[in-house]
Design brief:
This protein is 62% helix and 14% strand. By secondary structure, the protein is an alpha+beta fold. It is rod-shaped, with a radius of gyration of 24 Å. Strand 1 and strand 2 form a beta hairpin.
Amino acid sequence: EEDRFNEKTMETVLVNKEDECEAPILREDQDMINEFARLNNKKGGLNYEIQEFEHKLEGFSDASDEIMMAEGDDVRIKAGECFFVVDEDSATSIIEDMQKKIHVEFEKKKEELGALEERMAHLKASLYAKFGKTIYLEDS
């Protein structure tokens, strides 16, 4: 067995001699490895953005519930550092418009993440097919 160092997890991984692959690393292979690393990094950012959109959508849902509980009273809406007073129907309309905009962006990010994960899976399959267990590609 030979020790291999995995930089991502900062641990040594043992590789059996029979699992080693003598395939040369071509420029195309290195390009695929680099692309996988870039996509993996981008995936982390997209996951964070998606979580932020989910949090915003929850906030709008909570705000919508609060407006319903106002029972016809005027509602204060915060815009930046200021509050302004609107009637319940206007507040509901504002919240719904904001929810729609955020939901559209949320869906775009989810689609982008799906395409990114599909590309990563293709790269991973190609590289594992060539290098077997001698390469370690783990998504974040």
